[in-house]
DNA sequence: AAAAGCGGTTACAGAAATGTGACACTTCAC
DNA sequence: GTGAAGTGTCACATTTCTGTAACCGCTTTT
């Protein structure tokens, strides 16, 4: 099973090497060289796994791990630490900061892939995605249900993902391109107008509960999910 | 949170050292020096975690791990491997045999405890032997019986485990992969569509009592057992 | 006012996911 | 052995979802 992996590594050569192996194994790779970029990327792309270098310019890996664990949405994302030497102190700190595993450089591609597989496998049963609620509209990823004012809304897969993305990224305008990247996946080739159609489907599905107005059109830009008028 | 830990280690000095640290941290420790004793103890005591030495007289650690993963009752118990050197081959094999983590000797007590904590934290909730009842459908693991509205339903082993899992994890959506991991065991290689077939068999078995329908299809995601519509 | 741009809406065919029945194979009790 | 029961796969049927195109009305430009 391919996964979206965020690779945080400042050394270009190493970054390239690791990324190559990950892609080779069928994973989709995002890259970051600094802590700042890494944090932004995580929140926007919500990867399945973060490969985090221990030594970084600016904030250290542990610091990043702490911040990720502090945020509601990024809390469940597994982290694998890349440590330079077998310094036990580092390992322990990494684990306590919330890393799910660590691996000591240098490592073989096989080992790295095995670790990734193991971490992803044991994360699956947890699936502690938290429910979101806005203005009486409630979406629960765990039960895969959407309810508003007593009514239970029936959504198709794409509509569900779309609404989920909207609710977890409310009050912000998203272009059609951004929505395609985030909800459909940034590798697919789909017409932008398709987004409109799904917006329409989602709106009419939400109509019975009266929550359709939460999805607003921003002419010339895109769409926005907002609790405000 | 104190836990029951089975320590499998043939070197008396090391065994003593580790056990001391575990007890110090408030854990309850069982010990075994050979593979044979280890397997017996696991099945009788059902510990929360197994600390498994890589090198053992007789069967190797990997072998034990495989056997534990093959048994119904011990399948869920997390395993942490203790490897002597940082031999990458070992790590990979250990992970592939079903170990949840490994740690390289020598290690600090702090590190070991951090690992144990991490592994226990993500452990899947265990199944109980208590009878479950939802909407008049009653499943008793002890008598191995399922009854609904006076009717007694006859289920095959897999159907029974499947229903049991559903009833103890109601309202949540489970992907086919998760169901395979939880009901079949995460070591087996079975087609995902097989789940569909068993869902169908379970549904038609429950039909006489009118309790099919509790098993709902969530298109694009998996299945859900729910008392709600 | 005409033209161009933009989004809403609908219809529909192809794609994808799931339901269903059949079958070969294994296991186990007798 | 032999037959019953259980299991995993497959092929096919059925249902549902999805992407596009086409058309419409409204708004902004020219």
UniProtKB/TrEMBL annotation, chains A, B:
Positions of the DNA-binding region: 129-227
Keyword Disulfide bond: no
Entry keywords, A to Z: Activator, Cytoplasm, DNA-binding, Phosphate transport, Phosphoprotein, Transcription, Transcription regulation, Transport, Two-component regulatory system
Response regulatory domain ranges (all copies): 4-120
Residues the record lists as 4-aspartylphosphate modifications: 53
Span of domain OmpR/PhoB-type: 129-227
A Pfam cross-reference name: Trans_reg_C
Main location: cytoplasm
Cross-referenced SUPFAM superfamilies: C-terminal effector domain of the bipartite response regulators, CheY-like
Lineage: superkingdom: Bacteria
Location of this chain's protein in the cell: Cytoplasm
Cited CDD domains: REC_OmpR_PhoB, trans_reg_C
Function: This protein is a positive regulator for the phosphate regulon. Transcription of this operon is positively regulated by PhoB and PhoR when phosphate is limited.
Database matches in NCBIfam families: PhoB
UniProt-recorded name of the protein: Phosphate regulon transcriptional regulatory protein PhoB
Organism: Vogesella aquatica
């Amino acid at each position: 099973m391919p996964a979206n992996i965020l690779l945080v590594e400042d050394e270009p050569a190493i970054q390239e090497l690791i990324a190559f192996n990950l892609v080779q194994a069928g994973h989709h790779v995002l890259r970051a060289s600094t802590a700042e970029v890494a944090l932004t990327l995580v929140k926007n792309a919500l990867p399945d796994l973060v490969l985090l270098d221990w030594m970084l310019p600016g904030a250290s890996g542990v610091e990043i791990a702490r911040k990720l664990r502090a945020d509601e949405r990024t809390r469940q994302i597994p982290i694998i630490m890349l440590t330079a030497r077998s310094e036990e102190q580092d390992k322990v700190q990494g684990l306590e900061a919330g890393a799910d595993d660590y691996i000591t450089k240098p490592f073989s591609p096989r080992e790295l892939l095995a670790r990734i597989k193991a971490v992803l496998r044991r994360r699956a049963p947890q699936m502690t995605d938290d429910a979101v609620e806005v203005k009486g509209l409630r979406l629960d990823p765990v039960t895969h249900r959407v309810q508003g004012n007593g009514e239970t809304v029936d959504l198709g897969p794409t509509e569900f993902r779309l609404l989920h993305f909207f609710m977890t990224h409310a009050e912000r305008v998203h272009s059609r391109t951004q929505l395609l990247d985030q909800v459909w996946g940034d590798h697919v080739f789909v017409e932008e107008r398709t987004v409109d159609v799904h917006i329409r489907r989602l709106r009419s599905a939400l109509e019975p509960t009266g929550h359709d107005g939460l999805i607003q059109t921003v002419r010339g830009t895109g769409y926005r999910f907002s609790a405000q008028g």
